[in-house]
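Fold it.
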Amino acid sequence: MFTYEIQNLVTYCIYYRAIYSSNHILTIEIIMRKFIVCLLLLLPLQVSADDESKRNKIIELANVMHMDVLLESINEQFLTMMENITKELNVTPKEKSILRNHYKKVNDLLTQELHQGKFELFLVDMYDKNLTESEVEAMLSFYTTKEGQSILRKAPIITRESMIYGQELYKKLLPKIQSIALEIQQTLADHRA
């Protein structure tokens, strides 16, 4: 489940990248804003775990699911995404260096925020709110098995492949979506006239 939420976040950010690059209005500022907005969705709400036992089991589940590795993966995916955007922009070597410095600052900020326990607090709150203690126990039981650990190792590959498919599908559908958007604008303009 932890991986699923992160997959949705990264997929959301990549879709925005596809939209803007296809429209040829891609700017680093827009991408950075979209990515930061996506990450702000991960900021923790106030932890309200009334049951300490359940809270401890959720923390144990995060450890079993190797959340530290997942956070590192988020950082790597961000830098990779920014490098790809840089290539698409056809910037000069000097501009590339400037952009990399800015990407590093943003990545350092993300790393600082995500690794100061805030992400863990968010997950504890989210799992506490949406799962029963017995569901958390069932997840713990499964993910501590050989099969559960195998699935956790394969999840990033599955996530990456699904994101690539989603991005390709979105690029394919983008002209039709843009056409519908123009149709909506025209219909509204006609209606308002």
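Residues 152 and 173 are 31 Å apart (CA to CA).
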